[in-house]
């Protein structure tokens, strides 16, 4: 059962993973299958060993049934993530990563870690990147201004994490800007 809007502060990480599961990923099918139509679109035909693009939800379903191998996205490798971590720790701006990188990486590492080279190192790098980006988010929010907040290249998970704090902070700042303080009222009289 869904919570009513007043009780719902943010989207849950599981819901974000569900949304991210619509992203396309390459697979190497192990079984042949004709083109199949789903609500979200038609995928296939699957002909081993030819690669095919399917949504993550379909790839994980086939992987769990041992009917495919998932080809990890280009960015889900040690070299790329190490370079991004170096950039995160040396440059004040957020480095560019796919918008749903955290959710996609979690799903693929949970379901298809045997298809990813060096999954433990990748998990470690993703955790380090997450911590570095969280520190940058906290720094950005510490200089929160009513007129503008610029945090480009945030991912969906990061936006979701700061949303409750940001909403409350902007509400308080709006009240402070709208309501004159008592000293200002005395000066006007």
TrEMBL record:
<dbReference type="GO" id="GO:0000727">
    <property type="term" value="P:double-strand break repair via break-induced replication"/>
</dbReference>
<dbReference type="Pfam" id="PF05916">
    <property type="entry name" value="Sld5"/>
</dbReference>
<keyword id="KW-0539">Nucleus</keyword>
<keyword id="KW-0235">DNA replication</keyword>
<dbReference type="InterPro" id="IPR021151">
    <property type="entry name" value="GINS_A"/>
</dbReference>
<dbReference type="Pfam" id="PF25005">
    <property type="entry name" value="PSF2_N"/>
</dbReference>
<protein>
    <recommendedName>
        <fullName>DNA replication complex GINS protein PSF2</fullName>
    </recommendedName>
</protein>
<comment type="subunit">
    <text>Component of the GINS complex.</text>
</comment>
<dbReference type="InterPro" id="IPR007257">
    <property type="entry name" value="GINS_Psf2"/>
</dbReference>
<feature type="domain" description="DNA replication complex GINS protein PSF2 N-terminal">
    <location>
        <begin position="12"/>
        <end position="71"/>
    </location>
</feature>
<dbReference type="InterPro" id="IPR036224">
    <property type="entry name" value="GINS_bundle-like_dom_sf"/>
</dbReference>
<dbReference type="GO" id="GO:0006260">
    <property type="term" value="P:DNA replication"/>
</dbReference>
<comment type="similarity">
    <text>Belongs to the GINS2/PSF2 family.</text>
</comment>
<dbReference type="GO" id="GO:0007059">
    <property type="term" value="P:chromosome segregation"/>
</dbReference>
<keyword id="KW-0159">Chromosome partition</keyword>
<feature type="domain" description="GINS subunit">
    <location>
        <begin position="75"/>
        <end position="174"/>
    </location>
</feature>
<dbReference type="GO" id="GO:0000811">
    <property type="term" value="C:GINS complex"/>
</dbReference>
<dbReference type="InterPro" id="IPR056784">
    <property type="entry name" value="PSF2_N"/>
</dbReference>
């Amino acid at each position: 059962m869904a919570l009513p809007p007043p009780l719902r502060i943010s989207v849950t990480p599981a819901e974000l993973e569900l949304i991210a599961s619509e992203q396309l990923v390459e697979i190497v099918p192990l079984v042949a299958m004709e083109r199949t139509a789903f609500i979200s679109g038609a995928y296939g035909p699957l002909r081993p060993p030819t690669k095919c693009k399917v949504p993550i939800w379909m790839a994980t379903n086939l992987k769990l049934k041992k009917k495919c191998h998932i080809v990890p996205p280009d960015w889900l490798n040690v070299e790329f993530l190490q370079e991004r971590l170096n950039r995160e720790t040396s440059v004040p701006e957020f480095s560019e990563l796919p918008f749903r990188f955290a959710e996609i990486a979690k799903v693929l590492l949970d379901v298809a870690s045997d298809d990813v080279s060096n999954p433990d190192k990748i998990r470690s790098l993703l955790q380090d990147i997450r911590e570095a980006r969280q520190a940058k988010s906290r720094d950005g929010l510490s200089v929160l201004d009513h007129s503008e907040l610029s945090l480009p290249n945030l991912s969906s998970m990061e936006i979701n994490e700061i949303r409750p704090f940001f909403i409350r902070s902007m509400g308080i700042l709006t009240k402070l800007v709208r309501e004159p303080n008592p000293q200002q009222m005395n000066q006007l009289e």
